[in-house]
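Deliverable D4.2, example record:
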Amino acid sequence: GDPEVKILSPIKDIVTSSIRCVGEGQFEVDYTPEMVGDHQVEVKIAGLHVQGSPFIVKAYDASQVLVTDIQPGTVGKPVYFSIDASQAGAGNLEIIVSVNGRNVPNYVQSEGNAKFRVNFKPQECQSHYLSVKFNNEPVPNSPFECKIRDSQQLVVNGPGVKMCPV
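Output generated by the structure prediction step:
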């Protein structure tokens, strides 16, 4: 007979799905997860689970990745920023820092619970671009611009400067 499919969300709610025959003994199931996390997909034929059922499907949401603390940097000094993927589900994070189309090495430090601190050391006085992807999907607002200034071009002004011996 035809298979029966039931999909349960991480909190065990039933997820609406549709099934259709796409060939002899082949079926396609469509559903849209409403939340991040492990979903159980139960597949039964004649009331009995098929081998491997229930299957676990991990739903993720790249739009839940937050990139924060991007500050302007200075040539030759490390620039730090933060990434929080704790609400995005299971997946792979890809971080590319580039300037003029060339990649710049970056270093990622895990802070636990899918939170990361990233740094790079700019060698050029030009905007660097921080491209962040989650499961190969760009996160919101990526790529991010990080302005870089030359340490030799620091301008200091204000009333206190006039009174300082140099």
